[in-house]
Amino acid sequence: MMQLVEILDLLAARQSALSPQLQRAARAVLDQPEEVAITSMRGFAQKFGITPGSMLRLARELGFDNYEQFRHGFQEAVRSGPDTFATRAEWLQQVGSQGDGGPVLAEMAKAQLANIESAFRQIDPQVIGDAAASIISARRSYIMGLGALNGLSGYFHFVGRLALENLTLVQSTGSVMDELLRIGDGDVLLTLSVQPYAEETLKAVAFAKRQGARCVIVTDSRAAPVAQFADHLLLAPTASPQFFPSMTSALALLESLLALIVSKGDREVVEAIARIDALRNAEGIYWKPRRKR
């Protein structure tokens, strides 16, 4: 029986060859795999504007005899996770009943928790571990997030450079391609990309790949256009009840990646962090309460 990750990988690989109707169904499955486990075929189809027949054809397209056989891998993944749904639902109901802002806060909390849980359930420790190792060993590791994602890439660069000297932040103030002209074999490009996907990001990643760089991609779906270029793919769901995508799970993955970089580093990494911290303290960069005389 295929595992969930194997099913999702197969679906992502075959998506471009599917009919438009089946591509819509595939995208829904790739974006919301937990819904497949907890919702009937008819219910899932109705929720995402797909016909039940499309879901059945999608399952058969992947080599399953029927939809329940396809769904089994999703259900097993949910069963193996922590049993916290009841207590979480109770807490969310309590939040939703508190004051005028309660319903909005409850919906936001529900989305953020679901995104983080989905990100960590889907992640393969080997994949994120290999991503950290690639960034450490690279001649130069470029960090890129355009538009609203620039803040996340800047955060990763700011914290990461305490441990590594090979990090370069790709600024979005000018031409991104100009900043990647020297990228090549032995380099790594860490890229953040979520829907709506920036065309400039896709062009930059494709260019880096042609130049021989390895790509660590943090994106919201296996169906994202940048996912095809990933040597290491990290999925960060961005579902939100508001008009803007949620960045909570992307930040959680970046922080996990930073933690792995430090844990995989040698003694020099720890010494570099301690040295910079000591310099900041000596130069008065950190605020400290003044002693009363």
From TrEMBL:
Residues 131-264 form the SIS domain. PROSITE patterns: HTH_RPIR (PS51071), SIS (PS51464). One of its GO terms (molecular function) is carbohydrate derivative binding. One of its GO terms (biological process) is carbohydrate derivative metabolic process. It comes from Limibacillus halophilus. The keyword Transcription regulation applies. It comes from the Bacteria. Keywords: DNA-binding, Transcription, Transcription regulation. This is DNA-binding MurR/RpiR family transcriptional regulator. Residues 5-81 form the HTH rpiR-type domain.
